[in-house]
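Q: Structure tokens for this one, please.
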Amino acid sequence: MARVAAEARSARERESDNLGVLEIVAKCSQCDAGLPVRAADAPAAIKCGRCGTEIPISISDGVREDRAVDRCPVCGGGDFYIRKDFDPKIGLAVVVIGALISGVFYWFGKDLVAYGILGCAALIDLVVYGRLGDVTVCYRCHSEFRGAYRRTAPGFDLHTADELELEYERKIGRR
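A: Here is the predicted structure, written as tokens:
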């Protein structure tokens, strides 16, 4: 019993240590690998573990102190959007698996069961999506920012993304 209480206490301490610390997932400009960095103690440059590219980062005071995401430390851009902190591939997988299972029941003439399975898959996806927090993403380099800061960025805009991604890819020599 004392061991369980001690583990719970240490878990709470770890959580409280992470409050107020903005975490950045910097994207490598060469291979798109995600490189996690804590803003409070970030180095001047990080090295990609996949391709070995050295990525210089310059963190603004607002990002370092978890007050606001005002400038991207990887590309220097100031344009961001907010999305749910959820891998869209997982959500799509839940819906596709539900559709496949539903298709089997539909094939055997069990229409109500098939529709029920589709509904449950969509409901599970919706509940999980609703419970998740938001993440701020840089339009140019797709670096992600997680922390306790106030979210001020708008939602995703396809036109803005098309323009800024192209600009960044030209800058780094991809196009």
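A few notes: Confidence is low (pLDDT under 50) at residues 1-18. The radius of gyration is 21 Å.
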